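Write out a sequence, fold above all:
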Amino acid sequence: MQHAHTHVYGTFPSRLGTEKLALVMAERFLAPFHIDEEIVSDIKTILAECCLNAMEHGNAFDPLCDYAVELELEMKELLIRVFNSGTSNIDKDEVINAFPTIESAFSENSRTRGWGLQLIDQLANNWEFCTRQGRTFLEVQVKIPNRNGGERLAGQ
């Protein structure tokens, strides 16, 4: 049996609102695979957060710096990669240790940053900062279960 392996790639300027174009690209890419709507909703949330992080932290909202989105659906998982022009020396453990808490959100010295990656951490199976050909990217892994609880193959 041959396993389906497919992907899509797109680039976008670092302007607020372009993340919506990436979401449309993702919806169209995922539609033929009949993935559960709740999983697609989680994927869209993850992707939007990744795009916003790339625009803000990786590209400093410079509209001349594009960010790129790559979605790769393999046998039992979707890999989301969002590339930017930022630095690659980001330590995942340091980021996780700096996640804000609900309690800290209501404190006098409230830190309002860091919720996006915390949301990604909750919705995804795994994520990490990577580099490829001098570009930094956030790679997020989402396992794709089929509708009866088992894992599905892409294209089924």
